[in-house]
């Protein structure tokens, strides 16, 4: 049942196309009889479109270049009148080809050559396109060398057919013209392609005319006429011509930077602007001098950082989940010269879940950048807290430091912010500092408690309360 339905649908579509074709032929006949267009050929009225339209090859947009060859072979074999070629062709066109043909006038749509050229131009199948296909064709891995040879032969034939060359002399001109264009600037090649020059001599003349027309030179103002002096030697003449050429070049002005002495083609400012910017690596500008005794030692945990870093060293906690469970204590060094924060590899149990999927290039004093993986880490410190991307490295240049806090996380924060509380707290170390540096902690009034704390009070209770035994005087 389904096969019969498909057959009925196919017959219906075929009959519909036949009716449309006959209708279009009839309309064309009426227009030609009314005096529009060219006179109707005698055998056009006897040609039955409905019997021949089924033989027209179906149009495929992927095989446009080979479709017209197949159509012409069928039309020639069946002795179709050339006047009906465009009508039969338009009955099978679809997609972009149908759109471009619909934009043609009535007279142009009746000419097969015009319709063919319009469709090929719409799919960019011009001689230049065939030439590029032939020159850029590469052998696919799935095709044999015999098939590859057949492909390049077909491409070359299509290039020659599109260029309308058949004899050896025409092919010679085609190859010479191609080689000539390969040595010309792009703008001149575009000009020659637009002019569709067929021969090498004609192309050379047009190239010279274009170069002379578009050359812009600024010559120096004329000077007073001087009596000509003949050069004494050939070397003197060459020096004079070279000097004149240099002086003419020095008077030119660049269109881009407006400086004399060069043209825009060799402008250094424009070249530097067009040059691709290299991939910049994040810098780690920490400078640390190493003595000969510890130059071979790595950064081992448990050691304290050098006192020179003491104002910028603080404590903190890191974890992979942000939960209190699993937090690890780290010694943080704030490095204002670092663009990327780093952490030691043995600080946390890293995994694929914490990996960000990318690496960062680090460069310090050494010229060779180092690729470092990025991981997500939860950081809790006095400066900043949150989830950040940090680089994981095996060692750090400062002993006792496990986390290098760079500008990418801390930003402009260098030291923790001061905290103001309602009730001041007295640390045990405050008394020691007051005793060691009394001029730093001045007091307007010295209380008994402060004096007693400083140890200036003298206990005289024993001397005052002691009983004095006085013997009576004898008379």
TrEMBL record:
One GO molecular-function entry: nucleic acid binding
Record Gene3D superfamilies: DNA breaking-rejoining enzymes (1.10.4020.10), Zinc finger, CCHC-type (4.10.60.10)
Family annotation (SUPFAM superfamilies): Retrovirus capsid dimerization domain-like, Retrovirus zinc finger-like domains
Transmembrane intervals: none
Record Pfam families: SCAN
Domain Peptidase A2: 330-366
GO biological process: proteolysis
Source organism, top-level taxon: Eukaryota
Entry-linked PANTHER family: RIBONUCLEASE H, ZINC KNUCKLE DOMAINCONTAINING PROTEIN-RELATED
Protein name: Peptidase A2 domain-containing protein
Organism field: Gasterosteus aculeatus aculeatus (three-spined stickleback)
Lineage summary: Eukaryota, Metazoa, Chordata, Craniata, Vertebrata
